Amino acid sequence: MPTADKILTRAELSTTLAAWRAAGERIVFTNGCFDLLHLGHVDYLEKARALGSRLVVGLNTDASVSALKPGRPLQDENSRARILAALAFVDAVVLFGEPTPLQLIELVQPDILVKGDDYAVAGIVGHELVLERGGQVLTVPLVAGYSTSNIVKKIISGLDG
């Protein structure tokens, strides 16, 4: 399957989710900006996918990234989506521009909602919704020392030196 085919609209995602559920698949959902894909992202997403049968990644649009992190994103949303879709353990990527992924979580109704262990379960957007439906909300350990901000700092310091 071409990687671009894994980037879905909400309507396409809804149809895909119905087929996966009919086949008994366990749906895992996570979200983020994924501006410069690095080892920390890859490890996190791979661990998230291992918790279920299918991994859906909600990807912040350029406008929503800019609202969260001034001066970012470094890569446009189409580039970020294609790079995520190229990962074998990512089954679907869907963009969201709302301030939080709550509307997308309502659509996906994941069996498992995942974030990194830098979050407390009670602080994860959508945790109440998932728990009310009998799903799980889990955190996975992050690889220490890897972040887009750290990579940007290294690049800038390398340019200054």
Explain this structure.
The protein is of the alpha/beta class. The chain has helices spanning about 10-20, 40-50, 60-70, 75-85, 100-110, 125-130, 150-160; strands spanning about 25-30, 55-60, 90-95, 110-115, 135-140. A 5-stranded parallel beta sheet has the order 3-2-1-4-5, with helices on both faces. The termini are far apart.
Name its key features.
globular, 161 residues, 41% helix, 7 helices, single chain, alpha/beta
Rg over C-alpha atoms, rounded to the nearest angstrom? 16 Å
Number of strands: 5
Q: What percentage of residues falls in helices of 4 or more residues?
A: 40-55%
- Indicate the overall shape: globular
Low-confidence stretches: none
The number of helical runs is 7
The major pleated sheet works out as: 5 strands, parallel
**How many angstroms does the end-to-end distance come to?**
44 Å
